[in-house]
Write a structure and sequence with these properties.
Elements lengths: L6 E5 L6 H11 L3 E3 L2 E3 L13 E3 L2 H9 L3 E7 L2 E6 H9 L3 E5 L2 H10 L4 E6 L3 H11 L4 H15 L7 E4 L3 H16 L2 H7 L1 H6 L4
Parallel strand pairs: 1-7, 1-8, 2-7, 3-4, 8-9
Antiparallel strand pairs: 3-6, 5-6
Helix pairs in contact: 1-7
The structure holds guanosine-5'-monophosphate.
């Protein structure tokens, strides 16, 4: 599927700093919109329905799957997560750039549908640092942290399928790297041709 807008998928094991990086990127870049996913997991802390996620029960999620309402969906840490067509199609068609903060399974599904999607994987600098970050976050029980560390091994192994890899050792450096990827994608010939079709047409560029 070709769209005028660019599509970025950011994946990482939990604790690598993906959410903070994407949040900072969105604050700096008004041309970028984030897609709000649907999930069957319960809201955490200050999360609001319709802001961080659309929180739905499993029956509603399955009904959406059966109705073909998702571009992609996956089971992550025991819950379902999905990107609805409604969440991104209109924006991409309108030429907006969209970022999806999703897991690696979803990112690979998106790449099959949108060949121009840019897949970015955020790595922690080490297993030790990842463990420390998960503990420091103080959001999850020891059992959940152990499960997340186990899943992280599988997730990190998928980085090889991504277009770009950013090691989040220092937040500011990783944010700079992320901005650079977004910016350079916008300058690619195909992306410029999609975004600036009139200029290209007037210059006789196909
Ligand atoms: P959390 O429960 O910590 O918010 O998210 C758990 C994982 O699910 C994260 O890796 C997050 O990026 C991923 N995730 C969030 N939304 C989606 C989605 O729409 N699709 C997929 N495949 N993964 C998602």
């Amino acid at each position: 599927m070709e769209t005028p807008g660019n599509l970025f998928c950011v994946a990482a094991p939990s604790g690598a700093g993906k959410s903070s990086l994407v949040k900072a990127l969105l604050e700096l870049d008004s041309r970028l919109a984030v897609s709000v996913s649907h999930t069957t997991r319960a809201p955490r802390g200050q999360e609001l329905d319709g802001r961080e996620y659309h929180f739905v029960d499993e029956a509603s999620f399955r009904a959406m799957v059966d109705g073909g309402e998702f571009f992609e969906y996956a089971q992550v840490h025991g819950n379902f997560y999905g990107t609805s067509r409604r969440a991104i199609q209109q924006r991409l068609d309108g030429g907006e750039d969209v970022v999806l903060e999703i897991d690696w399974q979803g990112a690979l599904q998106i790449k099959k549908l949108f060949a121009h999607a840019v897949l970015i994987f955020i790595l922690p600098p080490s297993w030790e640092e990842l463990m420390q970050r998960l503990n420091r976050r103080g959001e999850d029980s020891a059992e959940v942290i152990a499960q997340r560390m186990g899943n992280a091994r599988t997730e990190v192994a998928q980085a090889r399928h991504f277009d770009y890899v950013i090691v989040n050792a220092l937040f500011e450096t990783a944010l700079f790297d992320l901005k650079t990827v977004v910016h350079s994608q916008r300058l690619k010939y195909a992306a410029q041709r999609r975004a600036k079709s009139q200029v290209f047409a007037s210059l006789g560029l196909g």
